[in-house]
């Protein structure tokens, strides 16, 4: 099956610094990648959708200048949390799909746990 | 508008059967997904229904009725490892997934 990797799996950073999270589709070309955030005991919250080569579409309430998303190739998307604060501590999960394959399933990465101190 | 609803929490006994229901409302529909998510982990795909009826896959089955805006996930011969959150999501006309809040399933011995 399709595999999506995320790096790092966990990261601790100091308040005010920036953190970059990578999401890669390993054995398929991801025409679309999604970034989710999940707080403890809560459901997935979609942050943004990105199509390869295009600017990401952010959900209402998500600051595009704070959460920078780049989808420069069909296998790589990055999420950069700029000037991180403790309230940004969360579980960040990416997913990817290739609609051109006719398969609508989203394949999830293993997630990145961010802790901002 | 769009909305999707599923129970917050359910409890069942090891070896038994449990049915998790999901209801939704949308004008555009491209199928319904069920995902399993263990605590601290990312969701994993369980099933996808786009036509009415029952899809069986081992101990797990998923049912869809498009006219009623209703789906359920049926888990048989429950095992302790089935303790997890189960997320239903429908795909709208823009191929976006609209997620339910998840049902936390607790399995007791």
Short recap of the structure:
The complex is a heterodimer of chains A (117) and B (109). Chain A is an all-beta fold and 117 residues long.
Count every beta strand of chain B, where a strand is a DSSP E run of 2 or more residues: 11
Q: Structural class of the helix and strand makeup of chain A? A: mainly beta
Structural class of chain B: mainly beta
Query: Helix segment count of chain A?
Result: 0
Would you tell me the overall average pLDDT of chain A?
Answer: 92
The proportion of residues in beta strands of chain A is over 45%
Rg over CA atoms of chain A: 13 Å
Task: Write a concise keyword list for the protein shown above.
heterodimer; A: 117 residues; seven-stranded mixed β-sheet; four-stranded antiparallel β-sheet; globular; B: 109 residues; mainly beta; six-stranded mixed β-sheet; five-stranded antiparallel β-sheet
Protein described:
Chain A is mainly β. Helix content of chain A is 0%, strand content 50%. In chain A, strands 2, 4, 5, 6, 9, 10 and 11 form a seven-stranded mixed beta sheet that branches. Chain A starts with a strand and ends with a strand. Chain B is mainly β and 109 residues long. In chain B, 0% of the residues lie in helices and 57% in strands. The radius of gyration of chain B is 13 Å and the shape is globular. Chain B starts with a strand and ends with a strand. At the A-B interface, strand 10 of A face strand 5 of B.
Give me the secondary-structure topology:
The complex is a heterodimer of chains A (117) and B (109).
Chain A: E1 4-7, E2 10-13, E3 19-25, E4 32-38, E5 45-51, E6 57-58, E7 67-73, E8 76-81, E9 90-97, E10 107-108, E11 112-116
Chain B: E1 3-5, E2 9-13, E3 18-25, E4 32-37, E5 44-49, E6 53-57, E7 60-65, E8 70-75, E9 84-91, E10 97-99, E11 103-108
Parallel strand pairs in B: 2-11
Antiparallel strand pairs in B: 1-3, 3-8, 4-5, 4-9, 6-7, 7-8, 9-10, 9-11
